Amino acid sequence: MAVTFLAGALIFVCCTLFLLTVRNGMQVQKLSGELCSLMLRQISPNLYRELAEEYYEDSEESYETRTESSLTYENVLAQNVSDDETQEADDGAAYEDGKKSAGEADKSDEDGQETADEEDEAETAAASASVSPEKLADYDYLVQNYYTVDSSTTISSAQLNASELLQIDCTVAEGSGEEPQILIYHTHASEGYSDSTEGDYSTTVVGVGEELAGILRDTYGYSVLHDTGVYDSDRNRAYSVAKPYIEQILAEHPSIEVVIDLHRDGVSSDTRLVTEQDGVSMAQVMFFNGLSRTTSLGDISYLENPYITENLAFSLQMKLAAEELYPGFSRKIYLKGYRYNMHLMPKSLLVEVGAQTNTLEEAMNAMGPLAAVLDRVLSGE
Questions:
Q1: Which H helix or E strand runs over 285?
Q2: Which among 104, 196, 227, 239 could bridge 97 via Cys, Cβ 3.0 to 4.6 Å?
Q3: Which residues make beta-bridge pairs with 280?
Q4: Alpha carbons 227 and 142: distance in angstroms, whole number
Q5: What is residue 350's DSSP assignment?
């Protein structure tokens, strides 16, 4: 009888506290959890012990301490096959920007991304060769042919309006040659290729970034600062670690107008992201955008990015220029739910150069076309 009474009282108290939680938020929720836990402990100690570990493993405290890389950036390509949805958390608030886990061959992300298969890429290249303003104005056509939208996020025709994005000025002012115009850096400096040497950053994306910087300087006359800092010693915190350093560089060099975060994707072991341009075999590239919006949460206020529209304009203009100059060189633009430090500059670009199945030479070969595409957009041609 006593147990029945206590059980009824427990149900009544829990329902009452649940209603209060809805009205008053997390503080009451925590209090209700503690009271219910106390009552459950008194009524059924064994059941309490069985549930305790599972409950606290997924509690808010544990959730908030997860870092941005839970969703691993390289799991993006695999998502085209499995379409798994993962989440990253901010280093102190909740969601932070996610990225790839080094050394795994069957992942996808952003930098998470799922990748379109080779047939989709071929169709995209063919469609791009004959693209018209009328086609680009068709939202469904635009998304189908130029974008991969991760299941973690959403985007509408209001935000992905090609005619408006193509009118945004992505050019840079003519530089003096002394102060940098372009910053290249690597959130995940350790990302290497099939023949990279462990510990030798000249054989990872850092070496590829130096190749890009050299071509932009010597061939096109841009003033480029290449930051070779290593921010992924703890890969799960790479975006959080990199952020203050990049902010400091931008504060010290206000002349910088373009920020490029150069990465390498992660794919299944039997996938090869290779294209041939002008008779040269090279890695394909992919442009990536974070939308600071998830399907479950909506817009993430504490991961605000005031430059989302400018970021989208930059990547779309890069994609269209790439298809014009080098059809098949770039994969579909990947859209994901978080921020990826792209809020630091309107002209922010996150680029995936090949994957772990590419050779270093293939990645290096891709820098000539990437530099040409950048010049096409930045010069306003």
A1: strand 285-290
A2: 239
A3: 277
A4: 34
A5: E
- Phi/psi for 176 (5° steps) reads -85, -10
Tokens coding 205: 């994306």
CB atoms within 10 A of CB 142: 19
For residue 25, the tally of other CB atoms under 10 A from its CB is 10
Instruction: With beta carbons less than 8 A apart as the criterion, state whether 226 and 217 touch.
Output: no
1-49 pLDDT tens trace: 554 555 555 556 555 544 444 444 434 443 444 444 444 445 444 443 4
Joined tokens for residue 181: 């115009």
Q: Taking CA 157 as the corner, what is the angle to CA 155 and CA 160, rounded to the nearest 5 degrees?
A: 70
The structure tokens 């373009």 sit at 258
Strand partners, 259: 183, 348
Can you spell out the DSSP letters for 56-100?
HHTSHHHHHT--GGGG-TBHHHHHHHH--------SSSS-----P
CB 263 within 8 A of CB 95: no
Alpha-carbon distance of 285 to 374, in angstroms, equals 13
Tokens 């004959």, residue located: 130
Q: What is the pLDDT of residues 318-332, one digit of tens each?
A: 999 999 999 999 999
| Single pTM value for the model | 0.71
HSE toward the beta carbon, residue 284, CA cutoff 13 A = 27
- Tokens standing for 323? 């298809």
Distances (CA, A) of 61 to 55, 208, 244, 264, 301: 11, 40, 25, 32, 19
What backbone torsions phi and psi does residue 71 show, to the nearest 5 degrees? Answer: -85, 10
How far CA 183 is from CA of 253, 257, 345, 352, in Å, comes to 10, 8, 11, 16
CA–CA gap between residue 368 and residue 219 (Å, rounded): 9
Burial class (CB in 10 A: 0-12, 13-18, 19+), 31: middle
Q: Are 282 and 369 in contact (CB under 8 A)?
A: yes
Give the C-alpha separation, 92 to 61, whole Å: 10
Residue 172 CA to residue 244 CA, distance in Å, equals 24
DSSP class of residue 315 equals H
